[in-house]
Write a structure and sequence with these properties.
This protein is an alpha/beta fold. The protein has 19 helices and 12 strands. The strands form 2 sheets. The chain has a 9-stranded mixed beta sheet, with helices on both faces. A 3-stranded antiparallel beta sheet has the order 10-12-11. Helix 12 links the parallel strand 7 and strand 8.
Length: 373
């Protein structure tokens, strides 16, 4: 075995009742994964949230033999196991409280690429939805983003195939272990992704089979890995809506393509836009603008000019506040700078016109790329 600690890192995820959040808490209190397997019951019970039942599960566990088999499988099949403390673990995902403690990865994709976007949607995609997806990815090619989706029918597979067509790296998040690929019809595309510097990622163990409930867990990874989630077509219920909801909960950007009010395939997109949980977009240019990718391509002269813009004292307070805290709601900004809502709105509008800040759904504001550094 290449690394004895890997057995324990996998083993912690096999203990009944120990999910990602509990596992991280145990490691934080005890100091190591190996220590969890040696800790006394009465000491485990002193950890907040670890009651008698869970303490019993931990001290009476019998999972290390299965963990060793899992280690043998991933080494034999050239699968990389990335623990949440590893440098290769997706940095954006690590910020999510419920992120997986372990990811199993095939392929050479850079999971910490500068630009990562998720594209999700209905399994019953229309020709209109597929065309939107293909054109979006084609137009974003110049920025070389990593495209993340779920390998499912419809919009997911359209996104993966459009990325491959445009020589972009693309990653599929799976809702099952690596012994099988679901759906089987997409196995060839998955293989092509691996051959094109893409990847396959799962938090599930090799024997874990496809189950509908797994896709909710999978979708949080799709949302957490990316700086933005784009919904192309979606009904009002379904996996894409859950992914958008998770992205919002992680304070990530969500974009949606609108459609006619009578279009059932995009009812969810229209709803997200209506309740301010997604920015309305119609093209790649909207994505570039909202994510400030276009500002990264400004000339050095333009960037220097921006550095010499004169701000009022109140504008400087807002800039400092956002630089220190990240995205904030207008109510919080107004309270912190001790101004009325109307006065704050005017300042925010001026800063937006100067390309210093950007407005987000839910009356949130954040600094643009140039002013974050």
């Amino acid at each position: 075995m290449a690394d004895e600690s890997l057995k324990y890192q996998i083993g912690i995820g096999l203990i009944s009742g120990v999910g990602p959040m509990t596992a991280k808490k145990l490691i934080a209190y005890i100091g190591s994964v190996e220590g969890i397997f040696r800790e006394k019951k009465h000491l485990l019970m002193k950890i907040p949230g670890i009651g008698v039942h869970l303490a019993n599960e931990i001290v009476n566990q019998n999972v290390l033999e299965k963990a060793e088999k899992e280690v043998f499988y991933i080494e034999k099949n050239e699968i990389e196991a990335i623990f949440y403390t590893d440098e290769k673990y997706p940095s954006r995902l690590k910020l999510c409280e419920d992120s997986p403690i372990m990811l199993f990865v095939k392929g050479k994709a850079n999971l910490n690429a500068e630009k990562i976007i998720s594209i999700v949607g209905t399994r019953s995609a229309t020709s209109y939805g597929k065309e939107i997806c293909e054109k979006l990815i084609s137009d974003l090619k110049i920025y070389n983003p990593l495209i993340v989706s779920g390998l499912a029918y419809g919009i997911d597979i359209s996104a993966h195939r459009a990325a491959l067509k445009n020589q972009l790296s693309t990653v599929a998040i799976l809702g099952h272990g690596f012994r099988n690929i679901y759906p089987p019809d997409h196995r060839n595309t998955a293989t092509e992704m691996l051959d094109s510097n893409g990847g396959l990622i799962t938090e599930f163990f090799s024997d874990d089979k496809f189950e509908p409930k797994n896709f909710l867990r999978r979708n949080r990874i799709i949302a957490g890995m990316s700086e933005a989630t784009i919904v192309v077509e979606s009904s009002k219920k379904g996996g894409a809506m859950f992914t958008a909801e998770m992205a919002n909960s992680y304070n990530r950007d969500v974009f949606a393509f609108p459609a006619r009010t009578t279009d059932k395939h995009s009812e969810g997109c229209n709803f997200l836009i209506k309740i301010n949980k997604a920015n309305l977009i119609t093209s790649a240019e909207d994505v570039e603008y909202l994510l400030n990718w276009n500002t990264e391509h400004k000339s050095k002269t333009q960037q220097l000019e921006n550095q010499f813009i004169t701000f009022t004292e109140d504008e400087q307070k807002i800039i400092s506040l956002l630089k220190e805290n990240g995205k904030l709601n207008i109510d919080i900004i107004a309270s912190n700078v001790n101004l009325s809502m109307s006065e704050t709105s005017v300042l925010l509008l001026n800063l937006e016109f100067a390309n210093v800040i950007k407005s987000l759904p839910g009356k949130m504001y954040d600094l643009t790329f140039l002013y974050k550094n």
